[in-house]
Design goal:
410 residues, FAD/NAD(P)-binding domain, Immunoglobulin-like, 3 domains, seven-stranded mixed sheet, five-stranded parallel sheet, globular
C-alpha cells in the first residue's frame, strides 16, 4: 500500500508531489515513462516560463529543474522508464519497467498528470500521398532542440497554436525559411506575445482562415496547396495558392492523454477531453485526482503548477480524512464560454473557476448566474480562445444554488 501515487513526472506531477509532501504526506511515488523527470519542458528551450510562479523568465528545462531539485531535496521517490498499463477505480495501478518487470501498487490516492499529445496528420484527412517531411510541431521541436537534426529547409506550418508559433521562430533561427503559418480559424490559437515575438519579429506571414488542401510529392514533400476557407471552414474554390516546400509542420491541437483515466472509469468532459473534476481536482472516481494538461490544455506552465498544487494538497486532505462542508453545484456554460474547470463545486468554500471562450470577443461582459439572477459580472476589453481566464467565486455567491451558468454578453 502506497499513500499517494502520481502518474507522470512532468511539471504537473512534480508540483503535485511537492504540494502533497508539504501538506504532510511522506509515502509518495512518482511514475514517469521517460528516462528523466521534467516532461515536455525538457525540449522547450525557449524562455518565457516562470514569470508568474517565480517572477523570473526561465527556459523550459530551467523551470523543470526547479521542481526536480525540490523533489530530490525532499527525497520523494520516483521510478523512471516506467510505463503505467492500467488503473482501476479502486486505485490499483499496474505498471512495468526493465528492473521490476510488471508490478501492481495499491494506492490510497492517485493523481493523474500524464500530460497531452499532439493531434496527428491522420486526423486531418489532407489529400495527397504520404511523403517524408510531415512532422508534428512537437516532434520537430524535439529533433531540433534535443537531437540536433533539422527536419527541412523550406517550411509551411499548419496551425497557429503556441508550439507552431514557437517552431516558426526556431526553424528561422536555425536557417530555414518559413513561408507561412496557416490557421483554419479566423483567429490565432496562440498567445498574443508569441504572435508578436515569433512571427511579426521575423516577418513570417500568418494566414488566418486558410488551410492546407493538398500535399504534393511522393518520396518527399515538394509543395503544398493552401486555400482560403469560408465561415463554415470549407475551402473556397479559386483561392488556391501553391507553395514549394520540403517540410510541413502540424500544430493542429493537443489531446489530453486520458486512456488511463478511462480504465479507471473516470467521467470525461466532451469539450476538454479531460476529466470532469470538482474544485479540488478530484474526478468522478473517489480518491483519483487530475491536473495539468491531462485535465485541460494550459497556455502557461505556471498555471499547471498552480493547479497541481491544488490537486496535491487535496489528495493529502483525502488521505488524512480531512473533509470540507459539502455542497453540490453544477457549472454550466452558454457556448460562448466554451468550458470551465472545475465543472462542479462540492465544497462550501471560495473557488477559482478557470474558463476559455469559443471565439474572440471585445468589450464583453462575463456573467455568473444562478437561481434566475446574476450573481457576478465582470467586464473584459478582450477575450480570446488562446488565453485562459479565471474568476474567483466567494462561497456566499453559490451556497443556495444547485446550478450556476457562465455566460458572455457581447
Amino acid at each position: 500500500m502506497t499513500d499517494l501515487v502520481i502518474i507522470g513526472g512532468g511539471p504537473a506531477g512534480m508540483s503535485a508531489a511537492v504540494a502533497a509532501y508539504e501538506a504532510g504526506i511522506r509515502d509518495i511515488l512518482i511514475l514517469e515513462r521517460d528516462n528523466s523527470l521534467g516532461g515536455i519542458l525538457q525540449q522547450c528551450i525557449h524562455n518565457g516560463f516562470g514569470l508568474h510562479k517565480f517572477g523570473q523568465e526561465l527556459t523550459g528545462p530551467e523551470y523543470a529543474w526547479k521542481y526536480e531539485e525540490k523533489v530530490k531535496e525532499l527525497n520523494i521517490p520516483y521510478k523512471l522508464n516506467t510505463m503505467v498499463l492500467d488503473i482501476t477505480s479502486d486505485k490499483v495501478i499496474t505498471a512495468t519497467n526493465a528492473t521490476d518487470g510488471v508490478f501492481c501498487i495499491q494506492a490510497k490516492a492517485v493523481i493523474l498528470a500524464m500530460g497531452c499529445r499532439e493531434r496527428s496528420k491522420g486526423a486531418l484527412n489532407i489529400p495527397g500521398s504520404r511523403p517524408a517531411g510531415i512532422y508534428s510541431a512537437g516532434t520537430a521541436q524535439k529533433l531540433v532542440n534535443m537531437k540536433g537534426y533539422m527536419p527541412g529547409k523550406n517550411v509551411v506550418i499548419l496551425g497557429s497554436g503556441d508550439i507552431g508559433l514557437i517552431m516558426a521562430r526556431r526553424m528561422t533561427l536555425e536557417g530555414a525559411k518559413v513561408h507561412a503559418v496557416c490557421e483554419l480559424m479566423p483567429y490565432s490559437g496562440g498567445l498574443a506575445r508569441n504572435i508578436e515575438q515569433c512571427l511579426n519579429d521575423f516577418n513570417i506571414p500568418l494566414k488566418l482562415s486558410h488551410t492546407v488542401t493538398k500535399i504534393h510529392g511522393k518520396g518527399r514533400v515538394e509543395a503544398v496547396t493552401i486555400s482560403k476557407v469560408d465561415e463554415n471552414r470549407k475551402p473556397i474554390p479559386g483561392t488556391e495558392e501553391f507553395i514549394p516546400c520540403d517540410t510541413l509542420l502540424l500544430s493542429v491541437g493537443l489531446i489530453p492523454e486520458n486512456e488511463l483515466s478511462k480504465s479507471a472509469d473516470v467521467t470525461l468532459d466532451r469539450i476538454t477531453g479531460g476529466a470532469v473534476v470538482d474544485q479540488n481536482r478530484q474526478t468522478s472516481a473517489e480518491g483519483i485526482f487530475a491536473c495539468g494538461n491531462v485535465l485541460h490544455v494550459h497556455d502557461l506552465v505556471d498555471f499547471v503548477s498552480d493547479e497541481a498544487e491544488i490537486a496535491g494538497k487535496a489528495a493529502a486532505d483525502y488521505i488524512n480524512g480531512r473533509v470540507d462542508e459539502k455542497t453540490n453545484v453544477t457549472i454550466k456554460t452558454d457556448g460562448k464560454v466554451r468550458y470551465t474547470v472545475p465543472q462542479v463545486i462540492t465544497s462550501k468554500k471560495d473557488v477559482t473557476v478557470y474558463f476559455r471562450v469559443a471565439d474572440v470577443f471585445r468589450n464583453a461582459k462575463i456573467t455568473v448566474s444562478g437561481n434566475g439572477e446574476v450573481l457576478l459580472s465582470k467586464k473584459k476589453p478582450k477575450l480570446a480562445p488562446g488565453e485562459m481566464e479565471s474568476i474567483k467565486l466567494k462561497k456566499e455567491l453559490f451556497e443556495n444554488c444547485s446550478e450556476i451558468t457562465f455566460a458572455l454578453e457581447v
